[in-house]
Design a protein that fits this description.
Length: about 210
């Protein structure tokens, strides 16, 4: 199994030594390209309440805290190891009350309704038990007018994506059309799809 296959397999539920290695890789230079591309597209107020679904190693939360210094960022991940690493990565913000990291499943989040201005989902929808379930939960916890941002390195339009998903499993790579359909079913509107065709990066935003 190649490096990319191992990375996505361990990314589903990081645990143990190799899970920690995968989380460290998520915070490393190799995986900065997608967040760099996505964050360049976003203009955020500095006082937002944000949820990062599938927070992994916590690198994206650190960047969101920098972009919203007067806001608050909650991280959620099904992996206990990811919760621990995200907490360590953002410990000063956690200690000072600007960040909270919780364990939980994306399709059944232990969070109150309508409390976030922004929800982000970086490289995580591949692993949800249902796409609709995750989007329905994101819609539930967003305030009216809030925004969901989905960011994937795999846009489902590269023939190799299907091969990767079969080898990694359980994992599914979705096309922009499939994601857009599920967002509408969950109640989202104002859906915008942006692709980097050369790198097959995908960023989709939607409003509640």
């Amino acid at each position: 199994m190649g490096k990319i296959h191992r990375y996505y397999r361990r990314g589903r539920h990081p645990r143990g030594f190799w899970g920690r290695r995968a989380l460290i890789a998520m915070n490393g230079k190799r995986h900065k390209a997608l967040p760099d591309w996505v964050f360049d597209q976003l203009s955020l107020q500095d006082n937002l309440r944000i949820l990062d679904m599938g927070c992994g190693g916590g690198g994206n939360i650190k960047r969101l805290l920098e972009m919203c210094p007067n806001g608050h960022v909650t991280g959620l991940d099904i992996s206990k190891l990811a919760v621990e690493m995200t907490t360590d990565t953002n410990y000063p913000a956690v200690k000072d009350g600007f960040c909270l990291v919780v364990g939980g499943n994306a399709v059944q989040m232990p969070l109150a309704k309508e409390i976030f201005d922004l929800v982000t989902a970086f490289e995580t929808v591949y692993y949800w038990s249902t796409l609709e379930g995750g989007f329905t939960e994101a819609h539930r916890v967003l305030k009216p007018g809030g925004m969901l941002v989905i960011a994937n390195e795999l846009d489902g339009l590269d023939p190799d994506d299907e091969i990767l998903a079969r080898r990694v499993g359980p994992m599914r790579v979705y096309t922009p059309d499939e994601i857009e359909f599920s967002l509408k079913e969950a109640g989202f509107t104002d859906i915008s799809v942006n692709r980097d065709e050369q790198r097959h990066f995908l960023c989709i935003t939607a409003k509640k």
